[in-house]
């Protein structure tokens, strides 16, 4: 893949079709999938190592890592908005403008990261207390939160730099950096937790160092490309403000998704311990499937942005058609795996027969919903690539409004156990995803989102 400083492709160059387009989609999607799992891998490694220290330490890690991943998730618009801006300009043949948009996005990420890290360090005791952490857990949660908070700067820079490279059709570099970061995280955690004896604080410190190193590597790639393209590196107030305005609608969209997820967790909690425990397993499996489907959305973002930038609506329609096919078929295949493997997967997570039954039933229902999810994730990526964030924000609000009474109905009338989890996943994976499919599908059928040119 060309780096940021490579010559811009000609807007009149032949666009890929058929199998060539499929190969380009996969060439973008497969490395993107690897980069997507970086943060979950950090949490998984931290959990495995901290779990050997004790229950209080592991519980503290669980609470703090949830808070941190939520912050990173809220700011994921740094990647999405930068991908859209960069890809559209590169499609129009404006590599200088594309790389400049990426630099602006990184400056915005730096500001947001510094503010978020400072708030996390100062407010850690109050936030942990507000989450209801018991005395045996609170000190460990505060320690992990404070020592890992500096890594927020790195992770937000990683998002912005990754978005820039995706817009340039380079998903391989973020994948390589993510893989190296995951390996380094293991060694750093072992050193700080066991070698130096910092305990749970060492886990946070090791993760922060790994995340900072990842950011340094990706920022270096973009900076080299910027210098090669003759792009200035100083912060531009207008550019940073423009990046913030472009990301605001996507922030609203992300918040609506988080609201739906929190509502779902609240309902699972209200339905009892069996339902909540089984929900955790099914939700983890759903998240794993979402990574694969999201990688197709990332490919769609980049290719749609470039197609619109080059003024080629036919290419955009081909990308839409091919990625929708891949997403729906991929969701169906994963759904069949979920349904067939549920009875064998459940015992790996629990020995409780009630929870095992609920997991198996929940995976069948979730599997039936995955083709819809595949469709939704791809359409989401297409509209993000088109810079249609304002519509996605309003659509996100509308879908939460539709979902909330259905979730409340499950809360009020569904039984606990397997039946309750089945109804809950039918509401979330079925009704909520169908509402998202309807809003994005209706938009994609029209042409108002297909604004051609370097700027939307």
The total number of structural domains is: 2
Note poorly predicted spans.
Answer: none
Alpha carbon gyration radius: 22 Å
- What about the largest sheet? none
Mean pLDDT: 86
What is the element layout, followed by pairings?
Elements: H1 18-36, H2 38-50, H3 55-74, H4 77-91, H5 95-130, H6 138-148, H7 151-167, H8 172-195, H9 200-229, H10 237-270, H11 273-309, H12 313-349, H13 353-385, H14 389-413, H15 417-445
Could you walk me through the main structural features you see in this protein, from its secondary elements to its overall organization?
The protein is mainly α and 456 residues long. It has 2 domains: 220 residues, no CATH class; 209 residues, no CATH class. 83% of the residues lie in helices and 0% in strands. It contains 15 helices and no strands.
Give me some keywords for this one:
single chain; 456 residues; mainly alpha; 15 helices; 83% helix
Gist of the model:
With 456 residues, the chain is an all-alpha fold. It has helices at 18-36, 38-50, 55-74, 77-91, 95-130, 138-148, 151-167, 172-195, 200-229, 237-270, 273-309, 313-349, 353-385, 389-413, 417-445. Helices cover 83% and strands 0% of the residues.
């Amino acid at each position: 893949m060309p780096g940021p400083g490579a010559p811009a492709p000609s807007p009149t160059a032949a666009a890929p079709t058929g199998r060539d387009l499929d190969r380009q989609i996969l060439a973008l999607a497969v490395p993107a999938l690897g980069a997507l799992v970086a943060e979950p891998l950090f949490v998984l490694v931290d959990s495995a190592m901290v779990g050997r220290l004790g229950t209080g330490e592991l519980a503290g890690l669980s609470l703090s890592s949830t808070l941190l991943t939520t912050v990173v998730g809220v700011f994921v618009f740094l990647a999405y908005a930068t991908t859209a801006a960069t890809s559209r300009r590169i499609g129009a043949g404006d590599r200088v403008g594309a790389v400049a948009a990426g630099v602006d996005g990184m400056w915005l990420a730096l500001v947001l990261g510094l503010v978020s890290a400072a708030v996390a360090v100062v407010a850690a005791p109050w936030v942990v207390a507000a989450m209801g952490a018991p005395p045996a857990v609170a000190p460990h949660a505060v320690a992990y939160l404070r020592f890992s908070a500096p890594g927020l700067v790195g992770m937000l820079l990683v998002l912005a730099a990754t978005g820039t490279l995706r817009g340039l059709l380079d998903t391989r570099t973020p994948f390589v950096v993510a893989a190296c970061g995951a390996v380094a995280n293991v060694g750093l955690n072992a050193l700080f937790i066991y070698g130096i004896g910092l305990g749970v604080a060492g886990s946070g410190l090791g993760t922060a160092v790994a995340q900072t190193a990842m950011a340094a590597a990706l920022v270096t790639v973009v900076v080299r490309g910027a210098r090669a393209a003759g792009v200035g590196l100083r912060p531009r107030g207008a550019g940073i403000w423009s990046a913030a305005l472009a990301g605001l609608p996507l922030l609203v969209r992300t918040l609506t998704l988080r609201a739906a997820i929190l509502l779902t967790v609240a309902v699972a909690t209200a339905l009892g311990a069996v339902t909540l425990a089984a929900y955790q397993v099914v939700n983890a499996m759903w998240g794993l499937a979402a990574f694969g489907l999201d990688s197709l959305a990332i490919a769609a973002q980049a290719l749609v942005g470039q197609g619109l930038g080059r003024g080629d609506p036919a290419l955009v329609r081909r990308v839409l058609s091919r990625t929708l096919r891949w997403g729906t078929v991929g969701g169906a295949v994963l759904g069949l795996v979920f349904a067939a493997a549920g009875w064998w997967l459940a015992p790996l997570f629990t020995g409780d027969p009630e929870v095992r039954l609920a997991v198996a039933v929940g995976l069948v229902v979730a599997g039936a919903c995955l083709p819809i999810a595949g469709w939704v994730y791809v359409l989401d990526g297409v509209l993000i690539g088109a810079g249609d964030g304002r519509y996605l924000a309003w659509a996100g609000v509308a879908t939460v409004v539709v979902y909330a009474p259905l979730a409340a109905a499950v809360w009020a009338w569904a039984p606990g156990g397997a039946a309750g989890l089945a109804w809950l996943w039918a509401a979330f994976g079925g009704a909520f995803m169908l509402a998202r499919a309807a809003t994005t599908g209706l938009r994609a059928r029209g042409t108002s989102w297909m604004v051609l040119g370097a700027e939307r």
